[in-house]
What does this fold into?
Amino acid sequence: MSRPLIISDCDGVLLNFIDPFVAYLASEHGLTLRMTSFALSGNIHDAAGEPVDAARFPMLLDGFFTTHMPTQTPIDGAVAALADLAADCDIVILTNIGDRHAATRTEELARLGMPYRVIGNLGPKGGPVAGLVESFQPSLAVFIDDLPPHHSSAKKLAPAVHRLHMVAEEPLRELIPPAPDADARIDDWAEAHAHIRRLIEAI
It folds into this structure.
């Protein structure tokens, strides 16, 4: 029998993103991030308090991943949960970071105790999720992500996958609405670990 497959997002699920990104904006660009809504490109402000042109956001994000990825730290409980699950499951990290950063992300995750395969992606994740399910033919597939649209995409293109909505960074929990196409919403890794273990036991 094939092994279960866990497909997990990275930023906001496995690694803290908001605090390191805020520190990067301040130290490298003199900018601030005001989390009044979950729309990073509209919440970055200059020293005068004026919103930064949204066209600058891709450059700022790329700069963060190029130079400050090592400042990211693991979400509480993520390393231990995945290490336990890896004994019985295949684990793939599906992250919207772009292929050119995937190698660095792989190295950083391994350094932090998460030595798993990383796939760089841009855009909706349903297609890559469906492709991984086709490739692995798992006994169970669990998809973990913090953004509701990715769960909708996965439901459309890989409907058999169990979709777990996780917003692990506290500053974002009240800003990201429930994912209507997720099967469960769990924001804590200890609880998520137990939830996934129950799914595995039910196979």
Q: What stands out?
A: The longest strand covers residues 90-95. The CA atoms of residues 94 and 119 lie 5 Å apart. The helical segments are 18-29, 57-67, 78-85, 99-111, 126-136, 148-157, 170-173, 189-201.
